[in-house]
Description:
The structure is a single chain. The chain has 2 helices and 5 strands, in the order αβαββββ. It is globular, with a radius of gyration of 23 Å. It is α+β, with helices and mostly antiparallel strands.
Amino acid sequence: MTFSFKFRTAAIALLLGQPAYAKSPIAEVICEPTARMHDKLRHQFGAQRTASGVRGPEQIMEVWTSRRGDWTLVVTYATGTSCIVAMGDNWTNRIEADPTRG
């Protein structure tokens, strides 16, 4: 065996032996001024705010969904900044009967 063949074999083994890391659809948190974030979600992604809740005195959690089933979880701060903290697909709404109505 030649040095070249051994080198190529070792290089291929090294490359193939590396673990395959899954890439996150959102590698880092994306933050923008709230008005700009909402505009992008509406116009660029065709999403609408479908749910929201207060997380604390200065944070609101929002779920934005599109007709395709894509969803985005956004935290909006009292400072006027909003950040995308999670994204996904296949969103479904679940409406349960009101337990107080028998």
